[in-house]
Amino acid sequence: MRKTRKTTRTAALLGLLASAALVALTSVATTTAATQAAPANVDPPTITGTATVGEVLTAHNGTWDNSPTDFRYRWLRCNSSGSGCLLLAADGQTYRLGQVDVGHTMRVRVTAINADGATNARSQPSDIVASNAAPLTNTARPTITGTPRVGEELMASQGTWTGNPTSFSFQWQRCDIDAVTCLDVTGATGQSYGVRLADLGFRLRVAVTARKNGRSGTATSAPTAVVQPTTPVTNKRPTLRILGTKFLGARIYVRMRICDDQPRNLAILVRETRPGVRPALRRFATRVPPRPCGAYTRNWLPAQRFRGPGRYTITLRARDVSGFTSFPVHRTFVRR
User: What CATH number should be reported for the domain holding residue 303?
Assistant: First the structure.
């Protein structure tokens, strides 16, 4: 009987010891599994500070799982949209912005480290870095010298600027006679400009851009007088030529040149047609008379019946105060 009780106690004791060992092994396995994982980023790093040369940006680690024990930093200089990044040597938690950063955005790469590995995460881009240098400000507009006549040459001055610009660029423009609606002349980027037949009836002006260390400023001259022909214009009736057309949405824009030997305002007559649709008539005035030629831009919203897919034709004529009318000119569009 005593032997049986002793055997039972021994078995119970051995069972208790086995259970304790199993719990201990499970605890060790759980602990080991918990530590055998590199850091995982939950919320990305962030940057605080003002994006201006001379200011300091500060990196913040973000939120991580798996208990990182150390953090390391590398700063990146990116384009204005935050891509195309260049990894810099700067490896501190703060970064002082320099002139080389102007026009770029900054990001930071944070590396979280524990005993089981390292993981990288990047911040969103900062604001575009601005210069703290004095702005390039125009204090006296550029000017144009020379005679605005076909075959002559015009010369542009740079104007006067603050901030001591180191370089200047030029862009010549054609402007309408009755409103300063100006468009760049393709390829006309020199300080001088040879007046050509295409300029007849336009005013000319120049846009000057000053630059220094990534900073820039632009100023335009006053328009010249209306460009004159090489020989006087003599005609019994006005002439009209369409120079260009374009649609912006449903609205049509038409640029034209009208020449007349009488310096008086004219009427611009527009006829709109489409097959199977009744025509529409429009009338505009020049506001400033041709001298003797003038470039004008007019725009309108075609009536609903001319919108949508199909052929759309405009016919333009100019009529002077004596009732003389130019020959009609047409432009047809196939709308899709």
Answer: 2.60.40.3880
